């Protein structure tokens, strides 16, 4: 039997004719109106009946044959395909009324979590460098040179672009006193992926991990994704101290920010850092050292990394170009003890494959040609000025209302503001056009001191003055309520 009803299609000029014909025929077949084995008229006939070109018809029929709606029998014609009587669209019952598909326990916890805020680029948003001061012209010149290299269009390797790893190893050895060679470095998608990789490769579900309290919530979340049991180690304004470490522990990992505690800003003294290394070696605990912004120290020289303090350190060192260059790069790095390189590489391959080559090659050249060190030197001066300005504003306008927690600062500063609802205060501050993070949000369990963390790198003088005035009036408003 042959199909005769194709004449009935009402074609319009809003959509490609081939697409309309495809939709009409696939609809007839999948809804069971045209049954298996029916023969279609010849393509020439369809074309003349519909007043369209034969090429359009053959292209639509070709696509329908490729997808199984139709089947072509050489020498005989085109027929309706098989199997649609048991594969009707109405037979697919998906209960859209349920709120969520079935999620894992972790998925459920993510669904309950508040959405990350929309304050990503406001003055005082944490972790954003001064993007206006980034040497965009030099960067673009290097990127243009690199993008002409055909070698960078293909695959390269999961470990990361070798010239970048070489340049980075040189920089880390000299500037951060990290003991490493390029073969120990894995280039990651930001430090965030580095933390996730550590969790994935080292932790079994439900195992214990020690975290600084207060501490970086991004690290806690990455660890919790693996169902880690987090145990808080309390840290105060002076940084982590060995007396806060448990004498015995079953924890496999401890996440630390020894050179500049996140977020309070304390710096572990050299003897304390050696005690931490000794404790980790004795208790068999891996230390994940997140060296997120140590390039920016304003009292003397940057503090050397924990990793390089001993030749036998149980440390997985990580860093990122998010703060030293710009966050949208999404390039971070891990420096691993050699035996860990292979499993981490395989995990990286399975997680997201290679990191983008063009960006890696541009960073490599940026370091090799000295732009990186120059930029860091300039940013150290600039951020120090901003920090001094902000500190002076705080001293003069927030005296008696708020106290800065630590003497040191990288790109942010924490204020303790006793007695306020800091979540509400930060919400109001963001509504007024400023960024910031409530101090209490960095704590797990127990008493949560109140205050606000302010990132000052991404602010100008007028914004800092306006921000501190705004904060002053918001704190006073809360005190009056
Ligand atoms: C302490 C700390 N570690 C890691 C990261 C993640 O950095 P990345 O952008 O490289 O993923 C951040 C981001 O702000 C951070 O503050």
The CATH homologous superfamily of the largest domain corresponds to Type I PLP-dependent aspartate aminotransferase-like (Major domain)
User: In total, how many domains does the architecture comprise?
Assistant: 3
Q: List ligands, each type once.
A: pyridoxal-5'-phosphate
Shape: elongated
Mean pLDDT reading: 92
- Physical arrangement of strands within the biggest beta sheet: 3-9-8-7-6-4-5
Major β-sheet, in short? 7 strands, mixed
Would you tell me the structural class of the helices and strands?
Answer: alpha/beta
Number of strands: 13
Count of discrete alpha- or pi-helical segments spanning 4 or more residues: 14
Question: Which second-level CATH architecture of the largest domain applies?
Answer: 3-Layer(aba) Sandwich
End-to-end gap:
83 Å
Residue share in helices? 25-40%
Organism: Halioglobus maricola
GO molecular function, one term: DNA-binding transcription factor activity
Domain HTH gntR-type: 15-83
Keywords: Aminotransferase, DNA-binding, Pyridoxal phosphate, Transcription, Transcription regulation, Transferase
Task: Give an overview of the whole structure.
The chain folds into three domains: 5-89, Winged helix-like DNA-binding domain superfamily/Winged helix DNA-binding domain (Arc Repressor Mutant, subunit A), CATH 1.10.10.10; 151-370, Aspartate Aminotransferase, domain 2; 374-480, Aspartate Aminotransferase, domain 1 (Alpha-Beta Complex). Helices cover 39% and strands 12% of the residues. The protein contains 14 helices and 13 strands. It has a seven-stranded mixed beta sheet with strand order 3-9-8-7-6-4-5, with helices on both faces. A hairpin with a 7-residue loop joins strand 10 (403-404) and strand 11 (412-416). Helix 1 (17-30) packs across helix 3, helix 7 (190-202) packs across helix 10 and helix 12 (371-397) runs parallel beside helix 14 (461-480). The relative contact order is 0.12. Pyridoxal-5'-phosphate binds at residues 127, 190-192, 216, 218, 257, 262, 290, 292, 320, 322, 327, 332. InterPro entries: Aminotransferase_I/II_large (IPR004839), HTH_trans_reg/aminotransferase (IPR051446), PyrdxlP-dep_Trfase (IPR015424), PyrdxlP-dep_Trfase_major (IPR015421), Tscrpt_reg_HTH_GntR (IPR000524), WH-like_DNA-bd_sf (IPR036388), WH_DNA-bd_sf (IPR036390). It comes from Halioglobus maricola. In the C-terminal section; belongs to the class-I pyridoxal-phosphate-dependent aminotransferase family. Residues 15-83 form the HTH gntR-type domain.
């Amino acid at each position: 039997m042959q199909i005769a009803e194709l004449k009935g299609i009402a074609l319009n000029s809003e959509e490609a004719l081939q697409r309309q014909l495809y939709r009409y025929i696939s609809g007839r077949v999948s809804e069971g109106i045209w049954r298996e084995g029916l023969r279609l008229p010849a393509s020439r006939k369809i074309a003349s009946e519909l007043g369209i070109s034969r090429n359009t018809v053959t292209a639509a029929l070709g696509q329908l044959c490729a997808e199984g709606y139709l089947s072509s029998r050489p020498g005989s014609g085109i027929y309706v395909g098989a199997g649609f009587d048991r594969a009707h669209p109405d037979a697919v019952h998906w209960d859209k009324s349920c709120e969520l598909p079935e999620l894992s326990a972790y998925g459920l916890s993510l669904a309950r979590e508040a959405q990350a805020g929309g304050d990503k680029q406001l003055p005082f948003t944490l972790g954003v460098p001064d993007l206006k001061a980034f040497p965009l012209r030099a960067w673009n010149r290097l990127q243009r040179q690199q993008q002409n290299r055909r070698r960078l269009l293909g695959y390269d390797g999961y470990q990361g672009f070798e010239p970048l790893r070489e340049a980075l190893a040189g920089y880390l050895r000299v500037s951060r006193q990290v003991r490493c060679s390029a073969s120990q470095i894995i280039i990651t998608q930001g430090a965030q992926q580095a933390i996730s990789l550590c969790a994935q490769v080292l932790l079994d579900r439900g195992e214990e991990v020690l975290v600084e309290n207060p501490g970086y919530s991004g690290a806690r979340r990455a660890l919790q994704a693996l169902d880690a049991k987090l145990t808080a180690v309390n840290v105060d304004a002076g940084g982590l101290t060995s007396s806060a470490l448990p004498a015995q522990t079953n924890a496999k990992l401890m996440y630390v920010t020894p050179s500049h505690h996140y977020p309070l800003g304390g710096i572990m003294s050299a003897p304390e850092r050696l005690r931490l290394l000794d404790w980790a070696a004795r208790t068999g605990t891996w230390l994940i050292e997140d060296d997120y912004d140590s390039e920016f120290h304003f009292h003397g020289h940057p503090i050397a990394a924990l990793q390089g303090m001993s030749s036998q350190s149980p440390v997985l060192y990580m860093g990122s170009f998010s703060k030293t260059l710009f966050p949208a790069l999404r390039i971070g790095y891990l420096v691993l003890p050699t035996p860990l390189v292979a499993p981490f590489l395989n995990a990286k391959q399975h997680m997201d494959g290679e990191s983008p080559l063009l960006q890696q090659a541009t960073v490599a050249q940026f370091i090799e040609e000295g732009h990186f060190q120059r930029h860091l030197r300039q940013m150290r001066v600039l951020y120090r000025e901003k920090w001094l300005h902000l500190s002076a504003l705080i001293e003069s306008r927030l005296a008696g209302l708020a106290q800065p927690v630590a003497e040191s600062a990288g790109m942010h500063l924490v204020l303790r503001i006793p007695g306020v609802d800091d979540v509400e205060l930060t919400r109001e501050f963001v509504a007024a056009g400023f960024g910031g993070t409530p101090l209490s949000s960095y704590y797990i369990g127990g008493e949560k001191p109140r205050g606000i963390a302010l990132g000052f790198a991404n602010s100008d003088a007028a914004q800092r003055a306006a921000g501190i005035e705004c904060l002053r009036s918001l704190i006073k408003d809360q005190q009056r309520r």
